[in-house]
């Protein structure tokens, strides 16, 4: 049986579900890690802490990732780069596979 756009196969559903849910998974990982690290910061001013917390809570996928990349995080730089850039790379690959699975 041939799979077309009108009759998607199992692979299309599989990749499509990953493409749909992966941003939520990244949000649910980055935001709590960023907020946990931010809660332990004693050397930042109150206004910076409130601004970062607001950014993380208002726009969690970008706020959490931005804090881990550009904020004064206490985590190791290698961990932060792997968590954020690795997550974005996986998201990009899944989106590309999702687009290709519908062709």
Strand content: under 5%
Briefly note the structural class of the backbone: mainly alpha
Contiguous runs where pLDDT drops below 50 for at least 5 residues: none
- Helix content bin: over 70%
Elements, N to C (H/E): HHHH
Number of domains: 1
Helix tally equals: 4
- The number of distinct β-strands equals 0
* Bulk shape: elongated
Mean pLDDT: 86
Largest sheet: none
Radius of gyration from the alpha-carbon trace, in angstroms = 18 Å
Please report the distance between the alpha carbons of the first and last residues: 16 Å
Organism: Leptospira ilyithenensis
Domain Cardiolipin synthase N-terminal: 33-71
Transmembrane segments: 20-38, 50-70, 82-100
Main location: membrane
Write up this protein.
Its main location: membrane. The protein has 103 residues and is mostly helical. It has one domain (27-101). Helix content is 77%, strand content 0%. It contains four helices and no strands. The chain has helices spanning 10-39, 46-58, 60-70, 77-101. Helix 1 runs antiparallel to helix 4 and helix 2 (46-58) crosses helix 3 (60-70). The longest helix has 30 residues, at 10-39. The model has no long low-confidence stretch (mean pLDDT 86).
């Amino acid at each position: 049986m041939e799979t077309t756009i009108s009759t998607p196969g199992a692979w299309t559903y599989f990749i499509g579900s990953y493409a749909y849910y992966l941003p939520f998974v990244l949000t649910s990982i980055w935001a709590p890690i960023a907020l946990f690290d931010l809660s332990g910061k004693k050397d930042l001013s109150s206004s910076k802490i409130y601004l970062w917390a607001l950014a993380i809570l208002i726009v969690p996928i970008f706020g959490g990732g931005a804090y881990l990349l550009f904020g004064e995080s206490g985590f190791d730089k290698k961990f932060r780069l792997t968590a954020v850039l690795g997550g974005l790379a996986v998201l990009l690959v899944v989106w590309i596979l999702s687009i290709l699975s519908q062709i």
